[in-house]
Design goal:
Chain B: It comes from Nonomuraea pusilla. The complex is a heterodimer of chains A (about 325) and B (about 325). By secondary structure, chain A is mainly alpha-helical. Chain A is built from 13 helices and 2 strands. Chain A is globular, with a radius of gyration of 25 Å. Chain B has a two-stranded antiparallel sheet. The chains are: A mainly alpha (about 325), B mainly alpha (about 325).
């Protein structure tokens, strides 16, 4: 087990390193010179050279990359003499646009993204699994057909279309919700809930539909297994049968998929946050891309990749715990 | 997602590979689809949209409005450029209404936008399938270090936050040909999902008796790949690609929605929805029309893919 874990973590480090390298090359090699962007329109060659030297852009590429990497773990210094700025680990550098520390920018915005992701996840797990279970138990009935039809339809709505439609119906027409604006929980819990409700619904819809279909398929497969027939012939009540015997094997695969979907969301629900103007990591990524703010793009890409890769390992470990058949020795 | 079960229709042995079986199986699936109301409705809607895309210039000629033609008479400057009349300016003149502020005909833009979306989605599908099949089969067929390298590359690509990266690449690269870039980016991140399944199936097929028999009787590698293995991958390939197409249409629209897709004035559905964001409260038809077209197209493709999978699975089980 320990050896297996060590192997997984080594693989994780390699993948993160490659993503780092790849992202770095693309953003610092292919895109326009950041020094020119910072300098603006009234710019002299001297000023550009000065900015380049402060940012370390005048050094060879390998050295720049090394500085970036070591900054992540040990922190780094920018400039020299009186202009010396120390950036402590984990150092993602400073935004080209606002000169803020990128790490602090992320920490500022992470709570919003986590709120959006957690709320949506709770919603889609409850709705998706409940609908899937009911559909499976009542397979072939009117209920099953309706639920699966809705699931198919719901998974086909692009989330920004759903966002606009919801805003039009709930905010403009029925006026049951205020215009969305991120309200902190400590200010006013009710307003907080109202402001996040639409983002949660929009983000959760696609996943809920997918999970409903997966749950239904898995439960139907499990109900057809031999051990279920044995349990049924023992005279177990249907409710107990479902709860004790069918749920665990049927829902184990869902855990895997859930772990990966949720990890992917922590990097910021880009479209949802942008559409609703929520100041999370996803919106920050979209904004920084529009302004070509390379340090921020780098940091968000790395962060999102980190969550996905770590999420993968965690899912494998949890899966091992849940399903004894795949336990590695 | 659930990986498709390994193909079970190979029990008939090598001679069943390319001969009579595919034709009857294809016919059986087609019959099953024609009996299904949802699939028929989906196919009808897709046929309509494809027809609109092909006949886009004709539609413009008949209605007399090009996709980029301003129509100042259709909007009301006193109301900040809102379309005249109700429902976003729907009238005999403009069948699906006009855009606020400039009065461009929505029907013409939908038709021309369909061309862009479908072309990009179709090209992305072809490229992704090609990459996925080639790399998946290479990895599964040869195994060893080739498999190791390809599998690690797939892990690497699948760990990427694809959407953030697609947006970043598209916005940092110089303008160039947006449509080609979109296809390359979508396929570049999309092929591992197909290749993973192809690899898994190839791995099991390589050790099947009929492949060993062919190998023992001296079949070349080419014959093994194209005559023995590929035909057995066909049904799962069809299912996976039909289910992937709506994803590509959605991705293209999403990227255009975020402003990194096809550049204006070329119309695209995602871009139309994106420009309607500021107007949704006063002119809901502006986002409803392209939104509905996008939704129905994705829905039709999803239903179709779903039914094809059901039909193929039923065939394999019997």
């Amino acid at each position: 087990m320990a050896r297996y874990l060590a192997g997984r973590i080594a693989g994780l480090v390699v993948i993160l390193f490659l993503i780092c390298l790849f992202t770095y090359l693309i953003f610092f090699k292919l895109s326009p010179d950041p020094a020119l962007m910072i300098c603006g329109k009234t710019c002299t060659p001297d000023r550009v050279a000065q900015i380049r030297s402060v940012l370390g852009l005048d050094q060879p590429l390998t050295e720049q990359f090394w500085n970036f990497l070591s900054g992540l773990f040990a922190g780094r210094d920018y400039g020299s003499g009186a202009n010396l700025v120390h950036c402590s680990a984990p150092c993602f550098g400073y935004s080209f646009q606002t000169s803020q520390s990128v790490w602090e920018m992320i920490l500022d915005r992470l709570p919003v993204s986590v709120t959006v992701a957690v709320g949506a996840a709770v919603l889609w797990l409850i709705v998706g699994i409940a609908a899937g279970l009911l559909s499976a138990v009542k397979e072939g009935t009117w209920w099953d057909r309706t639920a699966m039809g809705l699931a198919l339809g719901g998974s086909s709505i692009p989330n920004y279309v759903l966002a606009l439609a919801l805003q039009y119906v709930l905010v403009v027409r029925l006026q049951v919700l205020p215009f969305p604006a991120a309200v902190p929980f400590s200010d006013d819990p009710v307003a907080w809930f109202q402001s996040y409700l639409m983002p949660w619904i929009v983000l959760a819809t696609g996943y809920a539909c997918l999970y409903a279909r997966l749950t239904r398929a898995n439960v139907i497969d499990t109900l057809a297994e031999n051990f279920m027939r044995t349990a049924r012939s023992k005279g177990l009540r249907p409710a107990l049968l479902l709860r004790r015997h069918a749920l665990r094997p049927a829902l184990t695969p869902i855990t895997t998929i859930f772990g990966m979907d949720f990890a992917a969301l922590l990097g910021g629900a880009l479209i949802t946050e942008t559409v609703f103007g929520l100041n999370g990591v996803g919106k920050m990524a979209a904004d920084s891309i529009a302004k070509n703010d390379q340090p921020v793009i780098m940091a968000v890409t790395l962060l999102a990749a980190f969550f996905v890769v770590v999420g993968n390992v965690v899912v494998d470990l949890v899966y091992t715990g849940l399903d004894p058949r795949v336990r590695v020795r | 997602m659930t990986t498709a079960a390994p193909s079970r229709d190979a029990t008939a042995g090598p001679e069943a590979g390319a001969g009579t079986a595919p034709a009857t199986e294809g016919r059986r699936i087609a019959r099953a689809l024609l009996r299904d109301r949802g699939a028929v409705a989906g196919m009808a809607f897709l046929a309509l949209v494809v027809l609109m895309a092909i006949c886009a210039p004709l539609i413009s000629a008949v209605t007399g409005h090009g996709p980029n033609e301003f129509d100042p008479t259709a909007i009301d400057t006193n109301l900040g450029g809102l379309p005249r009349g109700s429902f976003g300016g729907i009238s005999a003149e403009h069948l699906l209404g006009v855009e606020p502020q400039n009065g461009r005909d929505v029907l013409a833009r939908i038709a021309y936008g369909a061309r862009v979306s479908f072309l990009i989605a179709a090209s992305a599908t072809v490229l992704t399938t090609l990459l996925g099949v080639v790399f998946g089969m290479l990895a599964g067929f040869y195994g060893g270090w080739i498999d190791q390298v390809i599998s690690r590359v797939m892990d690497f690509l699948m760990a990427f936050p694809a959407l953030i990266f697609m947006i970043a690449i598209l916005s940092s690269l110089p303008a160039g040909n947006r449509s080609v870039l979109l296809v390359v980016v979508i396929s570049g991140f999309g092929w591992p999902y197909l290749a993973r399944v192809v690899r898994g199936q190839t791995l099991t097929l390589v050790n099947r008796e009929f492949v060993e028999a062919a190998r023992a009787s001296g079949a070349s590698t080419r014959a093994l790949v194209f005559k023995e293995i590929l035909p057995n991958l066909r049904s799962s390939l069809i299912v996976m690609t039909t289910l992937a197409v709506p994803g590509y249409i959605g991705t293209e629209a999403g990227l255009s929605f975020l402003g990194v897709g096809v550049t204006p004035p070329t119309p695209s559905w995602g871009q139309m929805i994106s420009s309607s964001v500021g107007w949704y409260a006063v002119d809901p038809m502006y986002f409803a029309v392209p939104g509905l077209f996008l939704f129905l197209t994705v829905l039709s493709l999803t239903v179709l893919g779903d039914r094809i999978r059901a039909a193929t699975d039923a065939g394999e089980a019997s």
